[in-house]
Amino acid sequence: MAWNTAKTKQLLLDAAVEEFAEHGPQGARVDRIAACAGVNKERIYQYFGSKQRLFTAVLEAELAKVAADVPLTGEQATDLGEYAGRVFDYHCAHPHFLRLLAWEGLQDGRVEVAAEDERRAHYAEKVAAFAKAQAEGRIAGDVDPAHLLYAVFALVGWWFSVPQVVRMMMAGTPDDGPQARRAALVHMVRRLTA
Amino acid sequence: MAWNTAKTKQLLLDAAVEEFAEHGPQGARVDRIAACAGVNKERIYQYFGSKQRLFTAVLEAELAKVAADVPLTGEQATDLGEYAGRVFDYHCAHPHFLRLLAWEGLQDGRVEVAAEDERRAHYAEKVAAFAKAQAEGRIAGDVDPAHLLYAVFALVGWWFSVPQVVRMMMAGTPDDGPQARRAALVHMVRRLTA
DNA sequence: CAAATGTCCAACTGTCTGGTTGGAATTCTT
DNA sequence: AAGAATTCCAACCAGACAGTTGGACATTTG
Fold first, then answer.
1. Domains with residue ranges and CATH for chain A
2. What sign has the CA pseudo-torsion B35, B39, B41, B45?
3. Cβ contacts of residue B53 below 8 Å, gap of 6+?
4. Which of B23, B27, B101 sits opposite A165 (nearest CB)?
5. Staple B130 to which of B1, B43, B145, B172, CB 3.0 to 4.6 Å?
6. Of B161, B148, B160, whose CA–CA distance to B189 is shortest?
7. Cα–Cα distance measured from residue B193 to residue B141, given in angstroms and rounded to the nearest whole number
8. Any idea which residues the entry calls the DNA-binding region (chains A, B) (predicted)?
9. Residue A53 CA to nucleotide C22 C1', Å?
10. How far from chain centre, in Å, is Cα A163?
């Protein structure tokens, strides 16, 4: 059988997403990743160099996915509530990503950030779309567009970042499913831009 | 000299806050905590039982602090923007706390949550204050009060939870100090309740 | 003062982990 | 088909780490 290094790499990445999202860069076990991928762990060091670099590779792959799956065209910036809803939907379907981001945030300053340039450009693009929508009067202009983007991500992400807090906060709210959360989110973002 | 176990305990807690906030429950090193407190590490097991229980103790102590330092009277609920600003100020001054919360969030489901009852009561109190302000028409009533509380905490906390993302997002914003962030936060929260 | 209780600490242990290595098997090159 | 290069893997290693222990020392009690 021909070597299929691309597939082996992908198996490792897939297993690593799970492991890193669950346990973080510290707690992730290289042996577990290798076993889960059905590959010898030495492959990880051959292909990725170290555990930390594998983490970076995982993060970059996931960043590319989310960027591709939740686009924002100029027109869609007219209803940021719906945009927020779509971002929310993505994270509901792919809860790994925000956990990876949280792990990255917690080790911020101790290792360099993955794909910094691409991400900066990515955010700048969104901010520009927001600013354009404001300039054309399609959404309210009294909030700095970067802060608006911040607000959308904060309001989407907090559910996933501190689920234990949210659970305690929502203990008295009878109807607290994903749909209710999504509706509240969309409503609040619209209120920020009306 | 008389034994001062209370002081020893406090020294350990103080050292543990630092260590846990920095490295999380996984990454924290018991030896480092003990050394930093100038105490033998065996004390930790005598006083707190295990590393995980020490983490819980640390979290409970910090929860008590924040609850005491950022109160919300009925009248203050009239200006939630200012309330959010005060919460923001607290976290700027005590950046440990949100990190601890983030670590707790990431291990959610694997260990039980600290002080669950007290915290539920604490949040319920805030929600009730919000609801009262809404009922009396002092703030807008079209957002569920629990979701409003969620929004305040999300908008305050996200800066600290994913600092790396915020940095990239704000790369194009010339004036991005704590004051600018605070102002944007206050403005956005007011917009949610106007 | 003597027994009992509690505090402190240095040294130890069993286990786990990221990372390495030496060589066997497989594919590519010429 | 010979040899070079690459992929694979089992076994190994050195260090780190949470938690323990046994006993010295201090304090309280009666």
1. 1-57 (1.10.10.60), 70-193 (1.10.357.10)
2. negative
3. none
4. B101
5. B145
6. B148
7. 8
8. 29-48
9. 25
10. 15
CA distance B88 to B185: 9
pLDDT at A184: 98
Residue B2 pLDDT grade (very low, low, confident, very high; cuts 50, 70, 90): low
- Residue A10 Cβ under 7 A from any strand D atom: no
Residue in B with minimal Cα distance to A27: B26
Q: Which residues of B touch A164 (CB under 8 A)?
A: 104-105, 108, 113
pLDDT of A165 strictly over 70: yes
Could you tell me if B78 and B67 are in contact, meaning their C-beta atoms sit under 8 angstroms apart?
no
- d(C-alpha A63, C-alpha B44), whole Å: 41
Chain position carrying tokens 């097991």: B45
User: Which of B96, B170, B186 should we substitute to test contact with A (largest number of A Cβ atoms within 10 Å)?
Assistant: B170
pLDDT digits (tens, 9 = 90+) for A116-142: 999 999 999 999 999 999 999 999 999
Amino acid at site B70: V
Q: List residues with CB under 7 Å of strand C.
A: A 1-3, 28-31, 41-42, 45, 50-52; B 3-5, 8, 39-43, 46
pLDDT in tens, B138-193: 999 999 999 999 999 999 999 999 999 999 999 999 999 999 999 999 999 999 99
pLDDT level of residue B1 (50, 70, 90 thresholds): low
**What pLDDT digit, counting tens, does each position of B68-89 carry?**
999 999 999 999 999 999 999 9
Rounded-to-integer distance, Cα A43 and Cα A33, Å: 11
Subunit contact A171:B144, Cβ cutoff 8 A? no
Rg (CA), chain B: 19
